[in-house]
Amino acid sequence: MKINNIDTNRMRNDAHFQFHADIIALINGVGAAVLNIAALWTAHTALFAKLDEALKKIVMSANTPKIQEADRARDELYSGFKKFLAGLCEHYDREIRDAALKVQVVVHTYGNVTSKSLSEETSAVYNLIQELRSGNYGGLVTTLGLAQWLSNIEQKNNQVSALMQERDRENAGKPHTSVVDERRAVDESYKHIVEIINANLLLGLLMGVDTFVNTANETIHRYATMRHKHRHGTHNPTAHNDRGGENSGDGAGV
Asked: Where along the chain do its domains lie?
């Protein structure tokens, strides 16, 4: 019996925070002393509190709801664009159909754009639009009547980017706390704690903790499944929204 591994590095901020909150609540329910981690527990919960404060700085920004709304509008436009393009791929005119299929290949190379983090989506949309306007595909875009779609998506993408930059400037005036650094510290502390618990389990030093281990593994499975759905499943329109909505790869939840 052991506590299973989980990759928390690419979780969105909201899921990452809640995962650790759930595990902390679970361990508090059993008692850190029972798990032989009392010496580490105070430091770990202090690190988690610092992460909470770093995330609150993002949430309290007046620009956060504006970013959420602009992102929602961008996602709706992008989804409409993909549906319109998919319809053209079934067009009765072979020339239109072939042109649409060529453009669709390019769009598919960018993956599920609306499920990406804010920064990743902004970059992907910008690059896609530039590629579709290039000499290789510009003529196809004109033939298919996609130019206005791209202009509208670009406008919303630029709006998201501008609001994110404004929030960055706002946050720059506050005491510096890096979400990335705080996340990393919590993750490293958590991994160390799990290593100690698993070592004690292997040595037979922990008794009567089967329910705790099973519950921890169910929690880990739930969050791992959630992350898989974000990467491969249907886009959740609130995925960017909670607690700044970014993952660790983008810095302080920009």
From this structure: 13-61+178-247, 64-172
